[in-house]
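Notes from hallway chat w/ T.B., transcribed later so I don't forget. T.B. wanted the structure written out for a chain they're using in a teaching module, and asked if we could keep both sequence and structure tokens in one place. Agreed to drop them here.
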Amino acid sequence: MEKIRVLAFVGPSGTGKSYRAQMVAGENNISYIIDDGLLVNENEVVAGESAKKAPTKIETVKHAIFIDEKERKKMIKAIKKYKPDSILILGTSDGMVQKIAKNLGLPDIEKTIYIQDVATENEMQTARNIRVTQGKHVIPVPTFEIKKDFSGYILDPLQIFKSKGSGKKPYMSEKSIIRPTFSYLGNFTISDTVFRQIIEYLAKKTEAISKILKTRVENYGEGPSIYIEVSIIYGYNLFSELNDFKEKCVKEIEKLTTMNLQKITVIAKTIEMPKKQQ
């Protein structure tokens, strides 16, 4: 840990730090970024849970600076596992990035880059306006990387063309825009009827299932738990068909609602004879 080169990227909340994090990291030959509780390598989240999921701003700060011992140990374990040569820590103040480095047992910060060094006042003001009026936050990883972690959050991809330098072809980098729970705009909920309609639609397209007998949806903060009873047609492999139907439900519900299913149970309550044999 003591051999890791540590840099910091500091700026007030909502001024575009996460948006520019990968650019700053690249210019300083850094592959790993610590931002709001996440350890990011290039375009992949390798450890941590985003502080943007916290229910309040106070909890967000606690999460971001690794106050919780369990979270802190997990992040330290991940850093030791991946052995990065250098890390860029993002924070809203010098004190915050120093606190993060200290809590994670990292060396003193070698260099601090400020948002004013890489963004104009107009760019920072635009970022602030979007944060205040729309409650949107940027995470420096592609949407597919974190979609399942942000159950019930507004989530949009943000694609950006970047240049690798003079004479080199530009490449596309994707970041994710979210609207956290603590945003004054709030989060959104999905009616239980929506889940039932998706399940019934999938059942109609499944030959082995005659009909849905019962559906129960229990909503939790991290995502719904769904219980399903079906009537299955005689002659099909019971376990195989139920597992296939369960996987279809998980895939379609998470795709259509962006909700992360905590648990889904599918039970065959009755067996029916095929209509031709009846």
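Follow-up for T.B.: DSSP finds nine helices and twelve strands in the chain. Might be a good example for the class.
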